[in-house]
Amino acid sequence: MSSIPHLDYLDRLEAEAIHILREVAGQFERPALLFSGGKDSIVLVHLAKKAFRPGRFPFPLVHIDTGHNFPEVLEFRDQLAAELGEKLVVRCVEDTIKKQKLRDATGKFPSRNPLQTYTLLEVIEEFEFDACIGGARRDEEKARAKERIFSIRDEFGQWDPKRQRPELWNIYNGRIQKGENVRVFPISNWTELDVWRYIQRENIALPAIYFGHPRTCVVLPSGQLLGLSEHLHLDENDEIVERQVRFRTVGDSTCTAAVESDAVTIDDIIADLLLAKVSERGATRLDDNISEAGMEDRKRNGYF
Amino acid sequence: MDLLRFITCGSVDDGKSTLIGRLLYDSDSVSLDVLAAIENRPAVHGGVDLALLTDGLRAEREQGITIDVAHKYFTTPRRKFIITDAPGHVQYTRNMVTGASNADLAIVLVDARLGVIEQTRRHTLVAALLGIRHFVLAVNKMDLVGNDEAVFNRIVAEYATVTRQLRVSDAVAIPLSALHGDNVVRRSTKLPWYSGPSLLEYLEQIDVTQDVSADEPRFQVQYVIRPQQADLPDYRGYAGRIQSGVYRKGDRVRVLPSGLETEIEALEVGQQEVETAVAPQGVVIRLRDDVDVSRGDSIIVASSTPTVTRALEATLCWMDERTLEAGQKFLLQHHTALVKASVSALLSKTSVETLHRSAAESAHLNDIVRVRIKTAVPLVVDAYAKNRTTGAFILLDEQTGATLAAGMIDATE
After folding, report:
1. How many domains does chain A have?
2. Could you tell me if B278 lies within 8 Å of chain A, comparing CB atoms?
3. How far is CA B221 from CA B244, B263, B292, B298, in A?
4. What CATH number labels B2-205?
């Protein structure tokens, strides 16, 4: 008789995520997987392969393109979609701005992060998506720590933290009324370290910007480093430096800071992380620091 | 490395948020920027207000209370921990039920000056009702009673009457001070009469695993994988999570509720064929014969005997503002099975204060009632005391989809 497999904590997190992905497939008519090209959504794709192969994914990948991209990430995205043979839907914030006559982001570092919400709601309406799978984790931010794995949004995409359904055992209630939709977060219970350890164990390919590389950066008043790009509006007082950096998250390039790092392998990154004293969002997101309730407010307005 | 999920029960006044903050802070799980954000806010007692590490919503910070279940994560070299922080206020009992449903261990917090109070009893009852077997009584604020051993011993004795009544067999008490960090992560010299582990030491070493091979094998279909590709024209895989026990290639199985028997031809985990898989792994089962199986059906090892029934006796934690009365109709979600159901009778109500049962005509928000339920189609179930997965269900509002109650199966007819 064969021996009984022992499950470690990564096996358990993986099993939970696969279970959640399959519940989405079982409960919804028109789900989608929100794919940013970042490591968390790449992990979601890997989990979806484990959940649904040899079948096709029961959902397309949807990328909300801010136009402020890291070119390496777009290249990676297209290559991954081609390899998978799955449908990729790309909708651009640029088009939404034109169509809805929105004001584009301005200033020296014009982040289109809040504008993504408009495009996201547009694409949900266009395809009548009833569930959108995202790679958000509860350890990222304290409002996220309070959100359910199946998070019900009203027809405006709004999250109401006081009206959340209790989420009992691993029974996921995705029953909604017309107009409502659900955001689903299969890796809610993973931390940044868990994600990296899983990437290491499963040997998952990532865009090159996650690994240490030389980059021309502008030094922000906070001391953080921002990769130089055509979307920044700099002046002569800005300090431009050449540094060995990597990115801990991948978002709008105008508000996603790099961290100085010589880590070139996943092992190096994990070693870095075990020493790191600054949280992922704290190190890299310029938009959450604006107010203590930054994320809560954006989620209430329909953000991911 | 393994995983421990625990819930913390207590109110803001017991220093629960401070205790969690202390666990995170002293185990180096708080990053500098998060600390900087809370250091910018004034603490009542001076120093850093560790409670701010857990209160995530604006309304919580404004009111200084915890409204909703929060999840916190930390890892030591020995374990990954998932903390479910459930608010202690009376009106939020439903959040505690929610938190307890996914936990293996409960930390019940008491204020050393107050000892065991009504809330302590309620929290222990709810946690025990939800099937938690391991309890830690964290006797907090020991510094405010002069670190007195006699006070601690008196509280331990009081709590023993509660655990005895609830038949909780594994409960340990630890004297501590969350504010000062005594016995939270590190053992303190201020309580020399206490020779046990610190709270974290205890959490790192307690064994909450059960022998999975002793559990009855249960599996429910979530999704049917049918590639319909040229190279796999006949592939039909039943995807789902093993709910309990062990499944093996070649097992003789029965599909329920239909009752058809066949054999496991192949067992796959993440596209790899395996000989054996265990709960809670997600697997794909391929069957030898072409039988009709769809989402919500169970595939059970033929030698095992779950109950297949349309009539249940269950304990409900009622979580909605409306009143529950006999005759009302709902949707019942038993994992991947969603069926129509009605509550045909209310049998009794359990007081969360005295733990006594009395007759019940109706149930209100936060009530715990025993009911009789009829379902439109048969379910494949076990008693909750035997199986925390197949014994659990929720009731939904048919129109809005709102979750109205957590249900635990007591008996099947």
Report:
1. 2
2. yes
3. 13, 16, 12, 6
4. 3.40.50.300
Coil, strand, or helix at residue A76? Answer: helix
Q: Is there a single domain that holds both residue A29 and residue A109?
A: yes
Asked if B365 reaches chain A (Cβ–Cβ under 8 Å), the answer is: no
CB contact under 8 A, B239 and A22: yes
Tokens representing B199 are 């709270």
- Residue numbers of the domain that contains A153: 9-193+293-300
Q: What per-residue confidence (pLDDT) applies to B86? A: 79
Say how many C-beta atoms besides its own lie within 10 A of residue A150's C-beta: 24
Binned at pLDDT 50, 70 and 90, residue A290 comes out as very low
Q: Kindly list the distances between the CA atom of residue A237 and the CA atoms of A105, A219, A221, A242, A259, in Å, as whole numbers in the listed order.
A: 22, 10, 11, 16, 22
**Contact state of A22 with B98 under an 8 Å Cβ cutoff:** no
Q: Which residues, at least 6 apart from B170, have a Cβ–Cβ distance to it below 8 Å?
A: B133, B134, B135
Distance CA B22, CA B338 (A): 42
Residue A218's SS3 state is strand
Check CB contact of A82 with chain B, cutoff 8 Å: no
Q: How far apart are CA B362 and CA B25, in angstroms?
A: 45
How far is it, in rounded angstroms, from Cα B220 to Cα B239? 8
As for the ipTM of the complex, it is: 0.92
Where in chain B is CATH 2.40.30.10? 213-301, 307-412
A173 touches chain B (CB under 8 A): yes
pLDDT tens track for B156-178:
999 999 999 999 989 999 999 99
List, for residues A5-17, the tens digit of each pLDDT value.
Answer: 889 999 999 999 9
Which of B17, B93, B225 is most worth mutating to test chain A (most A CB atoms within 10 A of its CB)?
Answer: B225
Residues 245-264 (B) with a CB less than 8 A from some CB of A:
246, 248
pTM beyond cutoff 0.80: yes
Tens of pLDDT, residue by residue over A71-112, are 888 999 999 999 999 999 999 888 887 887 777 777 776 776
- Determine contact: A54 vs chain B, CB below 8 A: yes
pLDDT of residue A289: 46
Which CATH architecture best describes the domain B307-412? Beta Barrel (2.40)
Same domain for A115 and A26, yes or no, is yes
> Would you call A134 an interface residue with chain B, using a CB distance cutoff of 8 Å?
no
Name the residue among B360, B358, B377, B232 with its Cα closest to residue B294.
B377
Nearest CA in chain B to A273: B31
Determine, for residues B222 and A19 on separate chains, whether the beta-carbon distance falls below 8 Å: yes
What is the pLDDT at residue B56?
Answer: 59
Sheet architecture: strand order including A88-92: A88-92, A61-65, A31-34, A131-133, A181-184, A150-153
Reading the block at residue B261, the tokens are: 């028997």
pLDDT value, residue A101:
79
